[in-house]
Design goal:
This protein is of the alpha+beta class. The chain folds into 2 domains: about 290 residues, 3-Layer(aba) Sandwich (Aminopeptidase), CATH 3.40.630; about 110 residues, Alpha-Beta Plaits. Helix content is about 35%, strand content about 25%. It has 12 helices and 17 strands. The strands form 4 sheets. Strands 1, 2, 3, 5, 6, 7, 14, 15 and 16 form a 9-stranded mixed beta sheet that branches. It has a 4-stranded antiparallel beta sheet with strand order 10-12-8-13, with helices on one face. The longest helix has 22 residues. It is globular and about 80 Å long. Belongs to the peptidase M20 family.
């Protein structure tokens, strides 16, 4: 059977309604969402997603990392499934669309296929990956990392949140420890629809980002140790100020990233200051440096330069300094054939598009290690994400999901 024509589109209103209904679970304080991984809100969102999938005729499988796999059968029981999906967990002050669009857009693809009465030779699976954000349990993309063999399950289960709660215990607490062995599933391909989380597509007036590569990254957790002391009675020359050390390293991170332009970024994100009192010189600071580039040589160089700079600043100020990598993946090249299918689908549907490099990490970056993978992106207003003000338009959501629909149908092979 020939590929469906360009008149085949998803139900935009139904997709938008689903996004808005999911956003009611774990609402934020400023219009976004706080549905952090393995919280009660995450559990509630999972149950809603499961109900929707079962209503669409799919069967739900869950592995021991809590990854959810909703399957629509194909006509060939031996054909490898085509996967699509993203994540339902959010940042503490997250938006309604980061990750969620990729999961509910994939569900809408299946709903549309059902509406049209189409059959595919390959099964189709909609996936919700656990703990993509890494906001509560570092590192990010934890469960897809276990699936791809990057991390062991024991390592993942032993991750703790800022309150000392273990990942494995919290997964069991909310009732989402499945019985499937992580990574046992085999894939023909995986697609991930996502908002860009950057300003390029909107600025260029493009509806679709054809993602060819993903940036590599290092998260380096730096601990500086000085001496707590009274801010008023300690002479300047006698201070061992961990906060000053962090400030100087923060500036150096910016300088290092700027020195590797183009295609390099870096900043200090998470910061814990001890004792965090207004009249005490910080005796200890723990903070995370985030550096990224799609070019391996630049990524490696920046890590080395940041570590040298941190140790040099610490030595100058008399601080103790330790550096621990807490997140990493190399730059990603997505499957050229799948990239071409996404590009052709956008063209067939008449959507403006451009090739783009993903600036953020995604579950697709890990799954790319074990199966052909690619991503579809749509714009977000002002490039804003990881923020409750994150916004997209229904038209952008529909365009991205339309492209996902046509790309998945081509790879899953529509049959008579």
């Amino acid at each position: 059977m020939p590929a469906p024509g360009e008149n085949l589109r998803i139900n935009s209103a139904r997709l938008w309604d689903s996004l808005m209904e999911m956003a009611l679970i774990g609402p934020g304080v400023a219009g976004g969402c706080n549905r952090q991984t393995l919280t009660d809100a995450d559990g509630e969102g999972r149950h809603l997603f499961k109900r929707w999938c079962e209503a669409a005729g799919m069967t739900m499988g869950v592995d021991t990392m809590g990854n959810m796999f909703a399957s629509r059968p194909g006509t060939d029981p031996d054909a490898l499934p085509v996967y699509m999906g993203s994540h339902l967990d959010t940042q503490p002050t997250g938006g309604k669309y980061d990750g969620v669009l990729g999961v509910l857009g994939a569900l809408e693809v299946v709903r549309t296929i059902n509406d049209m009465g189409l059959k595919t030779r390959h099964p189709i699976v909609v996936t919700n990956w656990t703990n993509e954000e890494g906001a509560r349990f570092a590192p990010a993309m934890l469960a897809s990392g276990v699936f791809a063999g990057i991390h062991t399950q024991d390592y993942a289960y032993d991750r703790t949140d800022p309150e000392g709660k273990r990942f494995g215990d919290e997964l069991a607490r909310i009732g989402w420890v499945g019985d499937e062995v992580v990574g046992a599933r085999k894939m023909k391909a995986m697609f991930e629809l996502h908002i860009e989380q950057g300003p390029i597509l909107e600025a260029e007036g493009k509806s679709i980002g054809v993602v060819t590569h993903g940036q590599g990254l290092w998260w380096l957790e730096i601990t500086l140790t000085g001496k707590d002391a009274h801010t008023g009675s300690t002479p300047m020359a006698m201070r061992v100020n961990a906060g000053l050390g962090m400030a100087r390293i923060t500036e150096r991170v910016h300088q290092i990233a700027m020195s590797h332009q183009p295609n390099a970024v870096g900043a200090v994100g998470q910061v814990f200051v001890h004792p965090n009192s207004r009249n005490v010189i910080p005796g200890k600071v723990v903070f995370t440096v985030d550096i990224r580039s799609p070019e391996q040589a630049k990524l490696d160089a920046m890590r080395a330069e940041v570590e040298r700079a941190a140790h040099a600043v610490a030595a100058e100020l008399g601080l103790g300094c330790s550096i621990e990598p807490v997140g990493h993946f190399d730059p990603v090249t997505f499957d050229p054939e799948l990239v071409g299918i996404v590009r052709a689908s956008a063209e067939k549907l008449g959507y403006t598009h451009m090739d783009i490099v993903s600036g953020a990490g995604h579950d697709a970056c890990w799954i790319n290690r074990v199966a052909p993978t690619t991503m579809v992106m749509c714009p977000c207003v002002d490039g804003l994400s990881h923020n409750e003000a994150e916004e997209i338009s229904p038209e952008w959501a529909a365009a991205g999901t339309d492209v996902l629909l046509h790309a998945v149908l081509q790879v899953a092979e529509v049959v008579e």
